[in-house]
Amino acid sequence: MKRAIIPLICLVILVASSCEAFYPIEITPVVTPLPPTMTPDPCGPESLSDKMMTINQSLTEFQEVVFIADNSRAQDLISPLMKLEEIRIRLSTLSTPSCLAKFKQSYLDYTAVVIRYLSSRMNDSKSDDYEIDQQNSQTLWQVVELEYEKAILDARLDFQTLTSSDSAFAQAAEIGVMARNDGTRSVNVRAQADLDASIVGSLEPGMQALVIARNEAGDWVRINLMGIYGWVFTKTIDLSAKLDEIPVTDNSQN
Fold first, then answer.
1. 225 phi and psi, to 5 degrees?
2. Could you tell me the sign of the dihedral formed by the alpha carbons of 186, 192, 195, 197, in that order?
3. Can you state the angle between helices 45-70 and 78-92, rounded to 10 degrees?
4. Which of 140, 152, 233, 241 is spaced 20 to 30 Å from 208 by Cα?
5. Is residue 127 domain-shared with residue 176, that is, in the same domain?
């Protein structure tokens, strides 16, 4: 009898262990939370630095072309106007965060009024109606500068003026000399003061450009033609001032 009981006990133990295999004990998994994803602040210094630099450069370029247009004849405004419209489209399509909404609207208002008054002057040079928009554009530019300053301060960025005092535009504006093509053929703008230098642009008949400097010999002047910097042969253009009033610069600049 005892011998029969021992095998029976072993059988019960074996069956019980098999049941545990089919019905394992449930263990509650331990969930480790993932570290939070750091989303950069679109209005923080790191996000705005490059964007504000791009806007700064575009607006300075716009101002340079406006300076040329304001000193050009009405019939010669088509090329500057096309350049201004190109810059305005570039600015309007630039993606900006909500913190720059007022700043963006201010420079879009300004650029629109400038293009409007120049278009009016080109279409009817005898009318003075465009002068109202021209005066309004100066007020709107002050709004642009104000909103720009606010954006820079809010983003804690290093302040840089929109029209840098050491830019070629500012230097040319201080000189106050314009180079004009009063001929009937295009004047080549070259990378250096040399007839064999590469051509980087052309000063079309009736167009004018800001004069930045001249070479020591005085037979070449360096100009800023709507953002294109280069040299033109003095004999092919007319200057609005005497040659000796223009500062001398190194011919290696391009």
1. -105, 90
2. negative
3. 170
4. 140
5. no
Closest CA to 89 of 56, 60, 70, 115: 115
Residues in CB range of 3: below 8 A, 6 or more apart = none
Q: Is position 149 within any domain? A: yes
Q: Exposed, middle or buried: residue 12 (CB in 10 Å: 0-12, 13-18, 19+)? A: exposed
In degrees and rounded to multiples of 5, residue 42 shows phi and psi of -65, -15
Sign of the torsion angle spanned by Cα atoms 82, 85, 91, 92: negative
125 in the same domain as 220: no
Burial group, residue 142, by CB count within 10 angstroms (0-12, 13-18, 19+):
exposed
- In the chain, what's the furthest Cα-to-Cα distance? 135
In 3D, which of 238, 240, 231, 162 has the Cα closest to residue 200? Answer: 231
Among positive and negative, which fits the CA dihedral 222, 224, 229, 234?
Answer: negative
Query: What is the distance between the alpha carbons of residues 169 and 210, in angstroms, rounded to a whole number?
Result: 8
Q: List pLDDT tens digits, range 145-157.
A: 889 888 888 878 8
Split into its structural domains, the chain has a count of 2
Among 126, 154, 182, which residue terminates a domain? 154
Question: For the segment 34-70, what is each residue's pLDDT rounded down to a tens digit?
Answer: 566 567 788 888 888 888 889 988 998 888 888 888 8
**Model-level pTM?**
0.61
| Cα-only R_g, the chain | 35
